[in-house]
Design the sequence.
C-alpha cells in the first residue's frame, strides 16, 4: 500500500516555473512507477509525465515535452515535476500516481493517487 502527498502548487504568471513534489509513505517509491496527471475544470484527467522505477525511462505528454522534467528523489521517497515556461493551458489540479509494473499513460492503470495540488497560470 502506498500513500501519496503532493505539494508545490500555486498561482504563477505565464513564463514562470513551479516545482511539484510527491512524497510516498507506506511503501518505497523506488519500487513503483511514478507519474503525474492533471485535470482542468470541465475536462478529463490527462497524462503529463511518467518515470520508471530506475529513472532511466521517462515519458511526457507532447504539450509539456521540453518544458517539464520528471525525476526521482529516492532518498526522500519522492518524485518531482519541474515545470518551466508555464502557460495558462497548464492550469489544473496536478495528481501524483503510482503503480508497480509497466509505464503507462492511462490513468485507470494506476493503483495509488494523491489528493492533488492546484496549479494556476494567469496574468
Sequence:
Amino acid at each position: 500500500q502506498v500513500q501519496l502527498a503532493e505539494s508545490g502548487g500555486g498561482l504563477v504568471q505565464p513564463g514562470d516555473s513551479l516545482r511539484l513534489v510527491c512524497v510516498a509513505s507506506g511503501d518505497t517509491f523506488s519500487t513503483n512507477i511514478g507519474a503525474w496527471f492533471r485535470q482542468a475544470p470541465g475536462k478529463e484527467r490527462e497524462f503529463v509525465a511518467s518515470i520508471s522505477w530506475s529513472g532511466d525511462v521517462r515519458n511526457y505528454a507532447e504539450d509539456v515535452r521540453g518544458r517539464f522534467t520528471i525525476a526521482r528523489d529516492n532518498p526522500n521517497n519522492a518524485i518531482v515535476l519541474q515545470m518551466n515556461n508555464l502557460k495558462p493551458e497548464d492550469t489544473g489540479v496536478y495528481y501524483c500516481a503510482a503503480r508497480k509494473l509497466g509505464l503507462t499513460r492511462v490513468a485507470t492503470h494506476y493503483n495509488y493517487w494523491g489528493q492533488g495540488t492546484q496549479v494556476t497560470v494567469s496574468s
Q: What stands out?
A: Residues 5 and 29 are 12 Å apart (CA to CA).
